[in-house]
């Protein structure tokens, strides 16, 4: 069986930066619904299309194909008095900006203020995504209707 729309695909993957440094390697394989789940970036899904179990891909992702360009507009300096008391460098806050929920990373604290960065930590970076297809199966009618995988390795919810 090949990877195509409405197949449930299980992959193992590694994510590297432009300097070949390993950024992420999941311990458990990732299972997704090809053509529906927004789990993977479109360029990666495209590269997996037509592959079989055992096939591998290596995809270079420019910033626009992954986490976007770094946006200096997403840097804010806020008084500590306006933020949770347990805030610390390296921590994260969820806050709204222009009607969208954004995860803000705390990148610095000084003089009673915190520096918050709303960019993804990999924004502006070229990345390499290496993956191997471990399993492919037809999606169930319910998975297709819901737009995601159910059961082992996928999404679990009650109706």
Q: What's a quick, concise take on this entry?
A:
By secondary structure, this protein is mainly beta. The chain has helices spanning 42-48, 141-146, and strands at residues 7-17, 22-25, 30-33, 56-61, 75-79, 92-97, 100-110, 113-117, 127-138.
- Elements, N to C (H/E): EEEHEEEEEEH
If classified by CATH, what would the architecture of the largest domain be?
A: Roll
Q: Assign the CATH class of the largest domain.
A: Alpha Beta
CATH names the topology of the largest domain as Chitinase A, domain 3
Query: Number of helical segments?
Result: 2
Number of domains in the coordinates? 2
How far do the termini sit from each other? 31 Å
Low-pLDDT stretches are: 155-159
- Overall mean pLDDT stands at 91
Class from secondary-structure proportions: mainly beta
Give the percentage of residues in beta strands.
Answer: 35-45%
Number of strands: 9
Quaternary state of this entry equals single chain
What radius of gyration results from the CA coordinates? 19 Å
Q: Characterize the overall form.
A: elongated
Q: Quick one: biggest sheet?
A: 5 strands, antiparallel
* Fraction of residues in H or I helices: under 10%
């Amino acid at each position: 069986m090949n990877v195509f729309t409405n197949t449930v695909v299980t992959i193992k993957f590694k994510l590297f930066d432009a300097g070949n440094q390993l950024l992420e390697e999941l311990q458990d394989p990732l299972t997704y619904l090809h053509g529906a789940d927004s789990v993977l970036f479109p360029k990666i899904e495209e590269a997996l299309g037509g592959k079989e179990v055992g096939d591998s891909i290596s995809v270079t992702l420019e910033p626009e194909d992954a986490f976007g360009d770094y946006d200096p507009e997403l840097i804010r300096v806020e008084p500590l008095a306006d933020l949770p008391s347990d805030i610390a460098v390296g921590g994260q806050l969820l806050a709204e900006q222009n009607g969208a929920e954004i995860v803000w990373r705390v990148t610095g604290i000084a003089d009673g203020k915190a520096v918050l960065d709303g960019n993804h930590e990999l924004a502006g970076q070229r990345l390499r995504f290496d993956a191997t297809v471990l399993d492919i199966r037809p999606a169930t009618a319910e998975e297709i209707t819901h737009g995601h995988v159910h059961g082992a390795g996928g999404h679990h919810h009650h109706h």
